[in-house]
Amino acid sequence: MGAEPKLSHTAALILRAISTGYIYGFSVMEMTGLPSGTVYPAMRRLERDGLIQSKWEQETIANAEQRPPRKYYKVTRAGKATLEATLKRYPLLEKLIPQTEAEHV
Amino acid sequence: MTRLLLRVYMLALSCASWIVPRESRAEWLKEWKAELWHIASLHSSGRIAAFAAGAFQDAYLLRSDLRHADAVRSLALGSSPAICLLSLLLAALASLGLAFLLPGTRPTLLPSPYHDARTLVVVSRDGSRGTSPSISLGEFRYWQHAAQGVFSDLAFYQIVRKQLHTGHGAGVELSVSRASGDLLSLLQTSEFPTSDQLNKNSARLILSDAVWRRYFHADPHIAGRLVFLMGEKATIVGIAKPDAWQLPGKAEAWLLESDSRMDSLEATSMGFVVARMQPSVTRNVSQDNWHMTVPQNDGNVAGFACVSVRHYTREPYVFFAFAALMALLALPATTSLPLGEYPYNPRQQSLALRLRRWLFLTAKLLLILPAVCFASLDVAQAFSDTQSVQLIVTFATALAAFRWMLRDQRSRCPVCLQLLRNPVRVGQPSRNFLAWNGTELICVVGHGFLHVPELPTSWFSTQRWLYLDASWRSIFRPPEVARTT
Known about the structure:
- The complex is a heterodimer.
- By secondary structure, chain A is mainly alpha-helical.
- Chain A has one domain: Winged helix-like DNA-binding domain superfamily/Winged helix DNA-binding domain (Arc Repressor Mutant, subunit A, Orthogonal Bundle), CATH 1.10.10.10.
- Helices cover 53% and strands 10% of the residues of chain A.
- Chain B folds into 4 domains: 3-79, no CATH class; 81-115 and 310-410, no CATH class; 120-287, no CATH class; 421-484, no CATH class.
- Chain B is 43% helix and 21% strand.
- The relative contact order of chain B is 0.10.
């Protein structure tokens, strides 16, 4: 049962955005153009399915910059495999969010 | 953006957080507030309002997801074979525990308190069940002299209702076992006061533990007290332990009569006879029942059954075995016996998997039997006719349990043993021609479908399992996800 789960286009778009370096919720919103009411629930479900994982920023770093710590997301190994399979279904995703934009964040 | 406006949005997020279940609320709010803080420092008020509005949608969806996950998790837990076996084990242990607590069933679980219980027999006339008095005192007196080759020792007792005066004008009516004085020496048990405590010249009374506690307030100095039983004097010589009496008839006290008093009783008084078989009679014989014929004064021969005391504690289990066997025989009338057609598939039905399926069925049966047995024993104690009630309860419960066992087995996936879900009605009888109509169930892990025909036909007589090959697996979640989420 090693088959990857089938993602919707929206979920695939968000996964692609995270994999290219948009690692917190608002940056994903900015990149994809999706509203917050869509992005955050989708990211939570991707995390539930083990495709991405979240990690809180260290308090010391946030305190030093006098701001609240953010929650960062990154794609897991299973998420990468799923994304690879999904890109075959939605080839335009690579053009929408090219890999080079990773340096954007 | 003003500090006041930011506070308003933060307050809105706090309001939205109340939609989120408590266990996830703090982290959810922390993330949204942090995001809002960052956005507020970069964007206009309109953009921030749209962002904050999404929090309500996210909170609502998170709540729905968590509730759905809880419902699916509890459903998955209920479908698990391990939970099924655990529930049956708990039921068996609970009924066994209750049987230990109930005074009527506890003796059947414990070894007999009487020395060499196999040779200790209750003699009853043929045709009587041994649970009602069938031997006259005259016959007992005759056997005391004439049957010494068969019995090494004999005792007579009868169950009578007697008024016991406990003192200060108070009295209670008790079931008293009025017995010949040698009853206790015959039983050879430590559950009753030892014989050297007993004065054999007068009537002696032994109280049950329950009577001693209830009517004499567990008085530790009660031995030697003189009481009146229906106007006759008797000396209390001790207290019997709770499980001391395992002979026919319910007794709350034991009145050991003196020899002179026994001789004065009428020869026609009916009662029970307990006897110790001669070792030469019982040697090399493993049975619990013997038959005895005795010539009568009128020239006829009367038959008597000598039933070992051990048989009485085993009797409930014999009744259980009989009723359970009857339930097994009646089972085909309530449900079909075949477990369905499972086409041979070496990839999905290895020998180990097939063996596991049969082991699961066997384990269910092995747990159902003690659960039903002890539960029927427990229930029967609530009625006066325990044997009849035990038979009826055992038959009904065993039949229902066996039926459930087969139906449960049929509704499980042969590969993972999870209960099948999502029943779907397939086809209509009026539109079928050599097809089938009925119910289709699915294994959530994706091992296959179960097709249960509504009307058995010559081409589809019983339920049929359909294995799914690997090409179907992409539509199912991985096993660990499917079972737990």
